[in-house]
Amino acid sequence: MTTSDFDRRMERAPYSTIWNLAWPQVVMMFFHFLIGFVDVWVAGRIGRETQACMGVMSQAMFFFMVVAIALANGSVAAISQSSGAGLPRRIQRFVGLGVGLGVVTGLAILIFGLWFDERFLNLLQIPPELMPIAGYLLEVSLYLMPAYYVFTITNAFFRAQKIVTLPLYSMILVTGVNTLGDLGLGLGLWGLPELGYKGIAWATFGSVVCGTIYNVVMLHRCGLLCAQCFAPWRWTRLALPYLIKVAWPAGLMQLVWHSAYMVLYAITASLPEGSVVAMAGMSAGVRVEAVLFLPAMAFNFTASILVGHYLGQDRRAEAKRVGYRIMAVGVAAISVFTALLWTVVGPVTAFIAPDPEVQAEAVNYLAWNMTAQPPMLAAMILGGAFTGAGATMYQAIIFGTSAWLVRLPLAYVLGHVVLRSSDGVWMAMFASVLVQCGTMFYFYQFKDWFRFTLRKNRRPA
Question: Sorting pLDDT into bands at 50, 70 and 90, what band is 461?
Fold first, then answer.
């Protein structure tokens, strides 16, 4: 679909066009969720030691992938704006630049990780009896970094071009290969060798490599990856600062947000009363709540695509308007989904947490956090609009301050001093979401976030 065809379609039926962009990404996020779910499920059948290490490695992988996520955000801003501006050569060159940076940074993480691996495991306080398993999983994960970086960034290339079905097919491929590998190599089904935790590690490795190869082939077939994509240095030195300017606040936001969650876990674990039940209830509640973040991330991606598209055309009013439209569709959809999920929240939490006390605490956690889902989604969608505009600095400031200046201090005061229970922590989470949403609205409506846009008259020579 050409840019003009897409614009005409948006004018005729804006909400259906938004939904057509969003739903494949919702399904894609569901398959992404299945990858981690199958890994943990198979690990539990192998042994509690393997399951424990898988949980630690999932947290470690986040830190390894921060740069890739940041580069993906920068690429979405640059390519979606270039697409809206009708500059195919600039799109190709940003694709070439992104692939090159993905390979280089992935190799850098691999080399640094192999040098730092033992220190890293000691930093995570891995028990000695788990060190062999954790060390093996970490080593295979590090070897995967270059391919995983390219996979993450190339998925962003497709989304930025409004080609949302190819990342979906890629994720289905990765999920299928990973599931077959986990069951076959991890548990020894279908006559395959039973490798245990080693099988899970190599299943992940093989699945991501397959997805990366698929993405690279499809980029070439779409004409987005060719010899002309790798620009001369004089163009690169002009384009690279913009990509970095968008990318580093996005990476910083991920680090700040997830580190705040680590501190929140510590505050919950040290509550004066019922800390163990509160921790268990929070862990169970987070697993249920994660399902709600799947559509939220999909609408976040959609906002970054369309806002970048219209800003590339220098249509600021339409860019702001489409952000609000996506927010309306997303909040309506997630509200219905949240209401439906609440009707079965009891049986779901009972399945995850059989202990009655933990189940009650999980329901209490979800009562506060599911109520906060509509304003949370509104903030995430407007944050996606900032990503499409290249204004990731605003997103980092708002999410960071709401977490560190509102959520954590309030959680400590309410949880440890005033109420002396988990209720204070859950109330603090709810309050911080309201502050985050209100601040995001203010910045989106009144701040000049358009100034971060890479428009035609500011493109690299």
Answer: very low
Alpha-carbon distance 36 to 186, whole Å? 14
Which DSSP letter does residue 456 get?
G
User: Which residues lie closer than 8 Å to 34 by C-beta, 6 or more apart?
Assistant: 175, 179
User: Considering only CA atoms, which of 178, 241, 187 is closest in space to residue 206?
Assistant: 178
- Pick from 196, 176, 171: nearest CA to 186: 196
| CA nearest neighbour of 3 among 306, 322, 225, 215 | 306
Phi and psi at residue 274, in whole multiples of 5°?
Answer: 65, 35
Give the whole-angstrom CA distance, residue 259 versus residue 254: 8
Other Cβ atoms within 10 Å of 115 Cβ, number: 10
Which are the contacts of 246, defined by CB distance < 8 A and separation ≥ 6? 73, 74, 77, 78, 387, 390, 392, 452
Q: Which of 63, 217, 209 is CA-nearest to residue 147?
A: 209
DSSP labels, 230-275: S--HHHHHHHHHHHHHHHHHHHHHHHHHHHHHHHHHHHHHT-SS-H
Tell me the C-alpha distance between 254 and 302, whole Å.
19
User: Which 8-state DSSP code applies to residue 459?
Assistant: S
Structure tokens at 144: 């995967």
Amino acid 69: pLDDT? 85
The whole-angstrom distance between residue 52's C-alpha and the CA centroid of its chain comes to 23
CB 96 within 8 A of CB 225: yes
Q: How far apart are CA 271 and CA 265, in angstroms?
A: 10
> What are the DSSP calls for 416-431, one per residue?
IIIS-SHHHHHHHHHH
DSSP 225: S
pLDDT, tens only, 112-153 = 888 877 777 776 666 677 788 888 888 888 899 999 999 999
Two tokens, residue 154: 């190339």
Contact 199, 133 (CB under 8 A): no
